[in-house]
Write a structure and sequence with these properties.
The chain is an all-beta fold and 151 residues long. It is built from no helices and 13 strands. It has a single domain, classed as Jelly Rolls. The strands form two sheets. Strands 2, 4, 5, 7, 8, 9 and 12 form a seven-stranded antiparallel sheet that branches. Strands 1, 3, 6, 10, 11 and 13 form a six-stranded antiparallel sheet that branches.
């Protein structure tokens, strides 16, 4: 079992329910989510509200980041962090977590699952997404995030 992480920085977009990123795994191994961090890099004029929600279809990714192993001797990560799509993922129903961020650069939220990891199934069609449910205002802001998981 290896531990991996991936991070990204993404400018907000002017539409509600915008998927900021999606973590998807391979078909052979479940991903065990341990921690997710979100932060405000450039302040927006309207406070973002983020939800952690499953995707029921992963869409077609156009920008991805591979997981970085904590141990350089571990195999290549099966988990991939997507941050742009030519076809958006399909969101499921019911959020695992939700938070409203401040309109101040430096605001942060951390979600931990160390006692009982949140599982991304071994599936080519399912993932886990961070969604900005409020994405309006004159300044859209830039947000940073990371996710830590075991495979």
């Amino acid at each position: 079992m290896g531990r991996y992480s991936a991070s990204n920085s993404k400018a907000g977009v002017n539409a509600a329910n915008t998927i900021m990123w999606q973590l998807r795994g391979g078909t052979s191994e479940r991903l065990k989510i341990l921690e997710i961090g979100l932060g405000v890099k450039t302040a927006p004029t309207t406070a973002p509200a983020f939800q952690l929600i499953r995707t029921t279809a992963v869409g077609t990714s156009s920008t991805t980041a591979a997981g970085n192993p904590y141990d350089a001797g571990d195999p290549t990560a099966l988990g991939t962090l997507d941050s742009a799509w030519s076809v958006n993922p399909t969101l499921g129903t019911g959020a695992f977590r939700e938070t409203t961020m401040t309109t101040t650069a430096g605001g942060q939220t951390f979600w931990t699952f160390y006692d009982e990891p949140l599982i991304v199934p071994a599936s080519a069609t399912a993932g886990l997404a961070i969604v900005n449910t409020v994405a309006t205002g004159a300044t859209l802001g830039t947000f940073v995030s990371y996710v830590v998981w075991d495979e």
